[in-house]
Design brief:
The chain is of the alpha+beta class and 82 residues long. 56% of the residues lie in helices and 15% in strands. It has a single domain, classed as Orthogonal Bundle (Arc Repressor Mutant, subunit A), CATH 1.10.10.
Length: 82
């Protein structure tokens, strides 16, 4: 089971890094559903994995809930070619 969780986390991390529309943030509802459908996961599972990857759920300047990642970690992973 733990190996399965790691695989989901890795797949999600790679998917997000390779998809430019998720570079700055991920909208909580519509984009989470899109990611879940593309990876064959439940939306709640995607949210759990985002927390593991260092994303935080915050309100943007327009009051919409978005997932935002620690920029330092994101830059490091993008530069390592993952």
């Amino acid at each position: 089971m733990a190996q399965d969780d790691n695989l989901q986390t890795n797949n999600l991390d790679i998917y997000i890094l390779k998809n430019l529309r998720f570079k700055s943030f991920i909208f909580d509802r519509k984009e989470i559903r899109c990611i879940a459908n593309n990876l064959g996961l439940a939306p709640d599972c995607v949210r759990t994995e985002l927390k593991k990857l260092g994303y935080n759920l915050i309100a943007n300047s327009h009051g919409r809930m978005v997932w935002k990642r620690d920029q330092l970690r994101h830059t490091f992973l993008a530069n390592t070619g993952i």
